[in-house]
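Minutes, project huddle
Topic: does the predicted pose make sense with FE2/S2 (inorganic) cluster bound?
PN asked that the exact inputs be recorded in the minutes so nobody has to dig through chat later. Recorded below.
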Amino acid sequence: MPKITFTDHTGTSRDIEVAEGRSLMEGARDAGIDAIAADCGGACACATCHVYIDDAWVDRVGAQDPNEADMLDFAAAPTDHRSRLSCQVRVTAALEGLSVHTPDTQG
Ligand code: FES
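Predicted holo structure (tokens), as shared on screen:
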């Protein structure tokens, strides 16, 4: 299973393993990453699963889709080119070693 590092706004990191085919949000939620609220359960309808993809990974993870970009307008923390809704990022073997950062608030 791909290993993914979550780093919170204080700089504290945690490595978790997420099965291929799961979303980044599902992996974080199942591992108890508190910074991911995921209030809508992955329906791209809440923006409380906002993460910042590490700059080195932005191209490999890919761009927001239009619905996701609209929903990110409602994110509690500022968004930028690294922002993704973690429920919309599907984990694949290519994401082994991915690093993501969580915002200081989800709302
Ligand atoms: S869990 Fe609600 S938008 Fe991702």
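Observations noted during the meeting:
- The beta strands are 3-7, 13-17, 50-53, 83-85, 99-101.
- The chain has one domain: 3-101.
No decisions taken; revisit at the next huddle.
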